[in-house]
Amino acid sequence: MAQPGVGLLALTPTKGERTMILDRFAMTGTVAIVTGAGRGIGAATAIALAEAGADVVISARTADQLGEVAEQVAAVGRRAVVVAADLSDLDAVAGLVDQTRDAYGRLDLVVNNVGGAMPRPFMDTSPGRLEQAFHFNVSTAHALLRPAVPLMLEGDGGSVVNISSAMGRMAGRGYLAYGTAKGALAHYTRLAAADLSPRIRVNAIAVGSVATSALDIVMQTDELRLALESGTPLKRIGDPADIASAVIYLASEAGSYITGKILEVDGGIQSPNLDMGLPDV
Question: Residue 38: CB partners within 8 Å, gap ≥ 6?
């Protein structure tokens, strides 16, 4: 049997055959669901998984963006099922599992990438905004994972990678809703890992500043971009491929001895690397 949480990833060599280290990063024969996959980290992750040998179910709001990602998946010889949906709808999120079963008959990996919340000053963050952030970042992950577990267990188990944020562990003005929700997602990861071990591994990535649409204003303003870079020990803004690489590591045989952990992929920051300039209350 394959290692727990790896699906078909365990490559058992025959007598006289040696498994190379790169084989441990292969995703051949596996099936993954990636949410928020129309652009940015989700798109890069779906394409990276296909390059590693996985077939994917990709979902986001915008069908055109998903179609472009599906074309890139097909270009490397893998299959993508496109599901355009509002993933703030928990029924729509859960429905991705049925569509995965119908298309592939198996599920090995869930990447909970959908999420986010706009920065706001403390007094502008209503209880409703806080609840909305929790819903979009945590409830959606649980709504997908709960029906995904039985399908994973029909096979050799599976792996889950939740996309959290460095703001889930750091304090910075303006991030009350976002940071609270991402901190909750990080601890959800630890708790779910305990509940689902040993057959399903659950890990998360605490993402730093990455060049996605969420940073468009920063990337287009030299002063803000340079401030962000100078506040990062590695002196650059992350690329979506940096996060996709970490997903491959955690989801593949290479990460088969890891569960309940938060992998920090953030350029080395220990505090927020951009001051939003919010005044004292």
Answer: 58, 60, 61, 62, 65, 66, 69
- From 101, 130, 104, select the one nearest 118 (Cα to Cα): 130
**From the CB of residue 147, how many other CB atoms can be counted at a distance below 10 Å?**
17
Residue 16 is predicted with a pLDDT of 56
13 located within any domain = no
Residue 74 falls within a domain, yes or no?
A: yes
User: At 76, which amino acid appears?
Assistant: V
Please give the Cα distance from 133 to 115 (Å, whole number): 8
Q: Which domain holds residue 152?
A: 26-265
Residues 272, 172 contacting (CB under 8 angstroms) = yes
- Phi and psi torsions of 183, nearest 5°: -65, -40
Report the CATH number at residue 217: 3.40.50.720
Tally of domains in the chain: 1
Other Cβ atoms less than 10 A from the Cβ of 24: the count is: 17
Which sequence positions are flagged as catalytic?
Answer: 178
Q: What pLDDT sits at residue 219? A: 84
The answer to the question of residue 10 being in a domain is: no
Q: What is the pTM of this model?
A: 0.92
pLDDT at 205 over 90: yes
Angle at which helices 40-51 and 63-75 cross, to 10°? 20
pLDDT over 50 at 8, yes or no: no
Structural domain includes residue 226: yes
